[in-house]
């Protein structure tokens, strides 16, 4: 008797696999949008008052969304106060200053805003914190790094090896400062140092104003050093030790909310927003920008 040959299972085509993948992706997008809308309503029971939470996470390279959220809650009479939850090593100077200014507008409108530091709130992250009414840190939070950095890359030798000879036509002697095709001159270094020093002075002034220090006192802390939250507290750089739950309780009490406040926040709107928020894209951008496009940075980014 001849043995019965095994029955071969039909092979799945690549097209069918791709179809299944696409259907699964669409399902994830729909579900993430639904849950995103649900989470944006907050996670606590509604009682006598509502506090809004605005998250600043990752490198600060763009301020539009954060400023939009703060501005929205500032103008909403149902929002009694705002918490700025910071977990950031800082970032570009301009966006950090825009967030700082919007925090000051909240205070000008007589609405309280507290800063809550997570694992790190350094450089630009600390800059925006000092604009708040009160600043809270964990004992192990990394903060400080009051300073400015501007980085350039010099690819002159590499260009020589591959036979690339850039030709530049410019309208002034400082127009191509920081060009990767050549070293900066001594005169250019002095000129750029003045620019960095001016922005550094702006940072020091913001710290002095926000922390009720003299400019001399703030300058002593402004050499780029980082501090733990405990050290920062002892140096009067922050007001209190405590995590997010402590901030919620104390801010609620400060605005006259009895019991636990309702806390609302904006969750990612969909799958792509969630992926962007949970990835290291911002950090990679922060690493790449200073080398490719010289820009002023309130940034603490150790190698």
Question: What does the secondary structure layout of this molecule look like, with pairings?
Answer:
Blueprint: H1 14-39, E1 50-57, H2 64-74, E2 79-88, E3 90-92, H3 93-108, E4 112-122, H4 124-129, E5 134-137, E6 142-144, H5 156-162, H6 186-210, H7 215-220, E7 226-228, H8 229-234, E8 240-241, H9 244-254, E9 262-265, H10 271-278, H11 281-292, E10 297-299
Parallel strand pairs: 1-2, 1-9, 2-4, 4-5, 4-6, 5-8
Antiparallel strand pairs: 3-10, 6-7
Helix pairs in contact: 2-3
- Number of separate domains: 1
How far the N terminus sits from the C terminus, by CA atoms, comes to 73 Å
Under CATH, the topology is which?
Answer: 2-enoyl-CoA Hydratase, Chain A, domain 1
How would you describe the oligomerization state of the chains in this entry?
single chain
**Helix percentage:** 40-55%
The overall pLDDT, averaged over residues, is 82
Quickly describe the structure.
The protein is α/β, with parallel strands linked by helices.
Kindly describe this structure:
The chain has 303 residues and is of the alpha/beta class. Helix content is 44%, strand content 17%. Helix 4 links the parallel strand 4 and strand 5. The longest helix has 26 residues, at 14-39. It is flat and about 70 Å long. The termini are far apart.
Features:
11 helices; alpha/beta; 2-enoyl-CoA Hydratase, Chain A, domain 1
